[in-house]
């Protein structure tokens, strides 16, 4: 049985390929969907594609993941031929406004890299400022080191990473950044660091340590969603919960999203989360209506009507 990808304990990508198959992944990588009869060795790629398929848009991210798959696979082939196998740090930075899917993608990447055996454990350690920054001199370096240790073989995902730079020179956040930078270099094939945050803040964050920028070979921008994409995100959320929008409700949400996007500042409009919050509130309002009307037939239970919709007034929630 082929092992599609494997990382040694030392974290380096090891190319252990015993496949005699000459099947090509050309079509797979070129086209949106995979051929039906995918060779067994590329099952991981199919699963990865299905997982990514649940996300609306994000073409750049989807392409990158496939490229990493191809790169690792080809490295195995190279090693089998006695050629040098490349090693590349896969630390990433996710930049984008609120609700554009950064946390969601980081979680998925953790799962995918496990499937691809890019990481020996593939677990995801989610952390924020308080998990890294200590209260006295030396405490921060220790906390950060401990966190990196926990993440070895997996992903360390630091959300709102720019908050580490918040307090300026005297703040212990800087010590956390310096410790991270050191470990990123020393253990660059043993864990993947993903820093996430809003674009402007992350750009400022990168200026805080001269070594930061070059240590993130993969920087992804998560653009704001268009109204159509937001509608699609909403549709998928509802479908998963087994709800539908009436035609009127669909039209009303669309209109509302147009005006919310135009009136709220980019930092205040929380994209996918905004849609999620509207739908969750509306589902509760629908339940209340059904209770009052005492009607529970299948169509009623499924359908969110326009007068069930609850919009956030001027808030970013
Ligand atoms: N491309 C997408 N497809 C489907 N759902 C999405 C997509 N992007 C975001 N969502 C949904 O929107 C919500 C917010 O996403 P998420 O928490 O990942 O955003 P974020 O960028 O991490 O936000 P913040 O920067 O505020 O932490 C989640 O419920 C997520 O499922
Ligand atoms: Mg987030």
Structure description:
The structure is a single chain. By secondary structure, the chain is an alpha/beta fold. The chain folds into 2 domains: 6-222, P-loop containing nucleotide triphosphate hydrolases (Rossmann fold); 227-308, Helicase, Ruva Protein, domain 3. Helices cover 48% and strands 10% of the residues. The protein contains 12 helices and 9 strands. The chain has a 5-stranded parallel β-sheet, sandwiched between helices. It has a two-stranded antiparallel sheet with strand order 1-2. A two-stranded parallel sheet has the order 8-9. A hairpin with a 5-residue loop joins strand 1 and strand 2. Helix 2 runs antiparallel to helix 3 (59-80), helix 6 runs parallel beside helix 7 (172-186) and helix 9 crosses helix 10 (247-263). It is globular and about 65 Å long. The N and C termini lie far apart (49 Å). 34% of the residues are buried. The chain binds adenosine-5'-triphosphate and magnesium ion (MG). Magnesium ion binds at residues 102-103, 159.
């Amino acid at each position: 049985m082929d092992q599609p990808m494997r990382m040694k304990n030392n974290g380096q990508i090891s190319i252990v390929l015993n496949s005699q198959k000459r099947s090509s992944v050309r079509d797979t990588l070129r086209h949106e969907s995979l051929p039906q009869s995918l060779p067994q060795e590329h099952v991981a790629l199919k699963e990865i594609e299905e997982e990514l398929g649940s996300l609306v848009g994000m073409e750049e991210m989807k392409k990158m993941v496939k490229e990493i798959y191809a790169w690792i696979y080809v490295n195995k082939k190279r090693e089998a031929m006695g050629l040098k196998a490349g090693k590349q740090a896969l630390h990433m930075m996710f930049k984008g406004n609120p609700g554009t899917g950064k946390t969601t993608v980081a979680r998925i990447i953790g799962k995918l890299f496990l499937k691809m055996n890019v990481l020996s454990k593939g677990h995801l350690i989610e952390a924020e400022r308080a998990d890294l920054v200590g209260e006295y001199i030396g405490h921060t370096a220790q906390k950060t080191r401990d966190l990196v240790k926990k993440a070895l073989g997996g992903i360390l995902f630091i959300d709102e990473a720019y908050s580490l730079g918040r307090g300026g020179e005297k703040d212990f956040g800087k010590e956390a950044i310096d410790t991270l930078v050191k470990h990123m270099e020393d253990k660059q094939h043993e864990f993947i660091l993903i820093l996430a945050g809003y674009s402007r803040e992350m750009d400022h964050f990168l200026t805080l340590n001269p070594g930061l920028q070059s240590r993130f070979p993969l920087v992804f921008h998560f653009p704001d969603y268009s109204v159509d994409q937001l509608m699609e995100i909403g549709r998928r959320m509802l479908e998963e919960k087994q709800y539908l929008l009436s035609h009127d409700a669909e039209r009303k949400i669309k209109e509302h999203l147009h005006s919310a996007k135009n009136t709220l500042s980019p930092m205040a409009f929380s994209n996918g989360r905004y849609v999620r919050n509207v739908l969750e509130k509306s589902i509760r309002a629908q339940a209340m209506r059904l209770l009052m009307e005492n009607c529970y037939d299948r169509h009623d239970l499924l359908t969110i009507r326009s007068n069930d919709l609850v919009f956030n007034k001027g808030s970013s929630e």
